[in-house]
Amino acid sequence: MAKLIEKDLEEAILALPTKEKNKILIRLIDKNKVLVEQLHFKLLEHPEIDLKLRQDSVADQIENLKRYNAIKSKELLTLQRSYFAQISHHKRITSDKVGEVRLSLKLILKFVTDYSLVFNKPDLKYNHKLNEYNIKKMLLLLKNLKGIHEDYQIEFVDDINTILDFFYNGIHAGLAKSLALPRYID
User: Which domain of life does the protein's organism represent (predicted)?
Assistant: First the structure.
């Protein structure tokens, strides 16, 4: 990304008295909500305990997701997108790669388990979009899985293979194959 300030201006800013620089810095940080939350997490929260609490909060929301008896593909897709937005926000604030994989996996597994009939109804208008979205999320999850330590990867293998099996045994197996979703991982 290109710098927005010139070299001369940068040097002049660095030459300002510390008190004045701090005022400017606080004013700039206050304008960015995500940066404020990131700094709060990094500077004020315990790196392990609060990370676990944040992760558990999102996981509890996924776990306590109301089970709908009659839901359409479009509504399910909208609901799922909102939960993935929460997971992305968690990752953006905490830089928690393992948590992102764990939460994404938990979310997809919950949806394919609770709403397997919706995923496999061929006559629903948004069914193809729902399956394509989830397959692409699985591909992203598998990519992110490679970026974490092997000890964590082992923890997720069974759930990932359950989801992969679901997509390859459903009506959109051809879509899974065309998007290069693996049949299983080891």
Answer: Bacteria
State the chain's maximal CA–CA distance in angstroms. 68
Q: Hey, what are 132's tokens?
A: 């394509």
Place of tokens 């558990």: 56
Instruction: Read off the amino acid at residue 77.
Output: L
Question: Counting beta carbons within 10 angstroms of the beta carbon of residue 119, is it exposed (0 to 12), middle (13 to 18) or buried (19 or more)?
Answer: buried
Q: Which of 137, 140, 134, 142 is nearest to 161 (CA)?
A: 142
- DSSP symbol at 148: S
Task: Return d(Cα 62, Cα 65) in angstroms, integer.
Answer: 5
d(CA 97, CA 112): 23
The parts of the chain modelled with pLDDT lower than 70 are: 1
Contacts of 90 (CB under 8 A, 6+ apart): 54, 55, 58, 96, 99, 100, 103
**pLDDT digits over 92-140, tens only?**
999 999 999 999 999 999 999 999 989 988 777 789 999 999 999 999 9
Q: How far is CA 181 from CA 56, 127, 129, 139, 186, in A?
A: 29, 18, 16, 6, 14
